[in-house]
Amino acid sequence: xxxxxxxxxxxxxxxxxxxxxxxxxxxxxxxxxxxxxxxxxxxxxxxxxxxxxxxxxxxxxxxxxxxxxxxxxxxxxxxxxxxxxxxxxxxxxxxxxxxxxxxxxxxxxxxxxxxxxxxxxxxxxxxxxxxxxxxxxxxxxxxx
Length: 144
What we know:
The chain is α/β, with parallel strands linked by helices. The chain has five helices and five strands; from the N terminus they run H-E-E-H-H-E-H-E-E-H. Strands 2-1-3-4-5 form a five-stranded mixed β-sheet. The relative contact order is 0.16. The mean pLDDT is 97.
């Protein structure tokens, strides 16, 4: 999760919402990403999506069975859906997202009974550090 926080800080420095993610398999990082929505002018350029694409490219596969994602905030419905489609094994996230969280807070795509894959989810890892980075970012935005 510390590596995901490093990615979130990169996003903060680039004036992006500070979310960071790393994909791990076999004890090594195979993909990393941070939000790049503003830079790329792409609403899908979430940290999770970028780390997922990076990991798939790294392993030259569309399935990431056995992989784990560490992300600083609970994934949204788009990201949770992509993680299910990629068939990752585990998801570890920092702060819960009571507005758009799709891994238990608002809805639970990661463990939806009608989908063909379910992800083991554990939230609240370094949650205060993750949440404080987001709060600082939005406080700075409001001051402008």
